[in-house]
Amino acid sequence: MNKKLMIALAVVVSFVASTGLFASGNSEGGLDIGIAMPETHVARWVTDGETLKANAEAAGYTAEVAFADADQTKQNKQISDFITKGAKLIIVASVNTGVNNALAEAAAEGVEIISYDRLLMDSDDFNYYITFNLKKVGELQGKSIADALDLDHAKEVKYITLFAGSPTDNNAYFFYDGAMEVLNPYIEAGKLEVVGPYPKTAADLDTFNRIATPGWKAELAKARMENLLTGDALNYTLDAVLAPNDPVARAVVEACLNDAKYDSIDKLPIITGQDGELATVQYIRDNKQHMTVFKDSRLLAKATITLADAILKNKVPSIEGTVKTKFDTNLKMVDTFLLTPILVTKDNYKEVIIDSGYYTEDQLK
Description:
Elements: H1 3-19, E1 33-37, H2 43-58, E2 63-67, H3 72-84, E3 89-92, H4 100-108, E4 112-116, E5 128-132, H5 134-148, E6 158-162, H6 170-188, E7 192-194, H7 205-211, H8 218-230, E8 240-242, H9 246-257, E9 270-271, H10 278-285, E10 292-294, H11 297-312, E11 323-328, E12 333-339, E13 342-344, H12 349-354
Parallel strand pairs: 1-2, 1-3, 3-4, 4-5, 5-12, 6-7, 6-8, 8-9
Antiparallel strand pairs: 10-13, 11-12
């Protein structure tokens, strides 16, 4: 090959690379569905991302998943990358409302957006939201505490401390309000007493922020629980802890087991959770955590890709196993599809999680 031909080929390769003509994706040279997940330190997001991708590919679409490591700037770049690759639809579970510039960029390019599990607040650049019944999650947590402590028949006051999720996650407010709708009547009746900060509802933002767990980070929850045990709760024996998700719940368990007052499993308070993480199912089996709320990511992923398929084919979405409603982003009402969460305790974890194939017995060993 002569020198002139080699130079010409190098120019062509450089042009193709710079213009993206070798882009990954479908036979038409582009990506169909981009999947933007917020983080990996909460295990369910890894499962969700992988399951969404698998379902999209099974439906005949090219798909790519990216994890933001709880960094909204990083997620915005990932969304921009999806747009560059020609994505026709992007599924977004955001870190926070800093995602809105990226959503606007996608909408301006004609890219469809599905708000996944976390409602994209203060944006009017999307039309669809899909999640589980968020308020029901909190109600299940609250009811499990009331039932475990037999609050309807309790003759002595029981003591509880409260944790909430990340203040940048709109879902955290729904979870908390669902739980407190169950628990507030017992508090008002004097059957349950809150140790530490007590926001009656999430609308009490100043107090809510005092019990919140920024970024859903377990290490922050553990540090707060340790401070409670040597501070507000020093002279109390806690009967229950409202923990919003499984990593927070396990952090609370760890803090308690390091305290002389709760240094064995039989002394632990009733502790709630959410997500059905593998480590938490082990905790439930071993009597360390009382319950979790199982949100089967397989069902959510299947429903989300069914929704995506309808959007991409310009069909009216109809998703079996969901309730259709509308949620307010503060700028518009968006069509919302809700799946049903399931309460999981030691009594039913095998039936709900093992028998359904979500985890195996070997994984729990």
